[in-house]
Write a structure and sequence with these properties.
147 residues; alpha+beta; Lipocalin; 2 domains; 9-stranded antiparallel beta sheet; 2 helices; 40% strand; globular
Length: 147
């Protein structure tokens, strides 16, 4: 706790000394706050990058992440039944967050895109990727669900 607080103060101070935008310090603090998979445990909303974060839209995707058997796992949450639909994989390393859904019947896992995100400001932002350089769909953001 003390180390985190000191790091946050240092980031804000450096931003002030060098005239960096306030959002930069927030981004550094957020990146420090999610430095490992444990920090992503809990419920999150996946939204379009321009969608309102206060009045959460109904067409969002709700996700939950947890550590089970020392493994980082995730699932899509059904908003009607509360059922958890397990993801094929979830990983967070070097400040890059990735997840992949399981394929529908008749498709293979390799055909499924991978959501790749990085910390930006106070959220994660990224896109569905079909390869290392080919994206699908709009820019998305992942925000923590209110408790």
């Amino acid at each position: 706790m003390r180390r985190t607080f000191c790091s946050q103060i240092a980031a804000i101070g450096l931003g002030w000394v060098f005239g960096v935008k306030p959002g930069f310090a927030a981004s550094l603090i957020f990146a420090q706050a999610i430095s490992k998979a444990d920090d992503l445990v809990g419920k999150w909303h996946l939204l379009g990058s321009t969608e309102d974060e206060v009045s959460i839209p109904r067409h969002r995707m709700d996700l939950i992440f947890r550590i089970e058997d020392r493994q980082f796992r995730g699932a899509i949450l059904s908003r009607t039944t509360g059922e958890e639909i397990p993801l094929s994989f979830v990983k967070f390393e070097d400040l890059t967050f990735q997840l992949q859904m399981r394929p529908p019947e008749g498709k293979d896992q390799a055909s499924m895109p991978i959501l790749t995100m990085k910390p930006v400001g106070t959220k994660l932002e990224g896109r569905w990727m079909t390869s290392a350089t080919e994206s699908v769909g709009p820019l998305l953001k992942l925000i923590r669900a209110p408790k």
